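Weekly modeling sync, notes
Attendees: AB, CL, MP (scribe)

Item 1: holo prediction request
CL wants a bound-state model with 4'-deoxy-4'-aminopyridoxal-5'-phosphate before deciding which constructs to order. AB pointed out that an apo prediction alone won't tell us much about the pocket. Agreed to run with the ligand included and paste results into these notes for async review.

Input as submitted:
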Amino acid sequence: MEQVSTRLAVLSPSATLAMSQKSSELKAQGVDVISLSLGEPDFNTPDNIKEAAKKAIDDNFSFYTPVSGYMSLRNAICKKLKEENGLDYKPEQIICANGAKQAVCNAILALISKGDEVIIPTPYWVSYSEMVKLAEGTNVFVPAPASQDFKITPAQLEAAITDKTRAIILCSPSNPTGAVYSEAEIKGLADVLAKHPRVIVIADEIYEHIVYSGKNTSIAKFIKDQTVIINGVSKCYAMTGWRLGWLAAPLWIAKAVNKLQGQYTSNPSSIAQKAAEAAYLGPQDSVEAMRVQFQKRRDLIIELAKGVPGFETRVPDGAFYIFPVVESLFGKKSSKGDVVNNADDLAMYLLNVAHVACVSGAAFGDPKCIRMSYATSEDQIKEAFKRIKAAVEDLK
Ligand code: PMP
Ligand code: GLU
């Protein structure tokens, strides 16, 4: 009998990966699809990082490493945390994993027991809620609508905390909205959490360097003993396929994660680790060069989105997504008879008619919106919006 576990049966597939798969399939059939679906930089990994990986192969870094990663990599991460974030961590507090995705899941599985509540400001990245389900925890969604600049307030946080609350997952800069909490806003949330020492904040800072005004502030600056920082090389160093992320946590959490990972996946790839070490210790100019490109693309996409009827788009301060509110298009019909009743329909309509792939906001907990990634070239963005505008103007 084909029967998967109940744990898996309640899990939704990743909508971001599903849409990317769908657009790849269409491309393979010869359709000229422009993908604004996946949050993946289109840049190549910087040369100094590639060289370090080639050298690691030649130098036979081919054996199991410590479960949490080479000491040299964890030292490099501690150096980064000290120099860039002003935070003191010991290498024992760092656990490297197969991407930040595994690091988030590690933190959740290490902390959450059946029935524990996890606060998730909504919209949220698609995988958080599903990872909480895997841990048999309970998602508590706290609305952060466009009218609040996609951020929650300290009062909302306070009101959401109960005796069962064990964690909050905070993503700044945010996927899918691009919102960035200011230092004062982070402090406001930290002040609430400090009153509830049992509540741990899982602070996903994977887009840390992709910010367009000022600098990202880690909540660990205020409540380090209650914070698990999540980060990795995928986004800021254009290394999505290398699969190297990490967490920095209080020692008791790091030890728990080490035990979990030791029974589960062991160390992440030794070669990816050596590459990541070079990323952190080498020149940082490519990070800045990519950030500048993303900012140009953000300005371009915002301008183009303004020209699409029914798109209400706030200007994001970070990451590489726009998250327009598109609900005024719901209930409309195209000249060919396509009906758009919700964000899922709109994403499918844009894929089928405009051949542009985006992701419905429903998967991120906000069914009034759609997510578009601008981690692609300016030419592609321009062409995508030419098509989107024509398709949307045909909805009456
Ligand atoms: N967190 C967020 C908010 C993300 O957008 C992503 C992108 N997939 C991840 C974590 C996971 O990144 P990684 O490629 O390092 O697993
Ligand atoms: N984080 C990226 C995204 O949101 C990559 C896909 C994924 O891992 O979900 O598109």
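Recorded for review: The pocket of glutamic acid (ligand 2) is lined by residues 14, 16-17, 38-40, 101, 126-127, 175 (CB under 6 Å).
Action items: CL to compare against the apo run; MP to circulate these notes.
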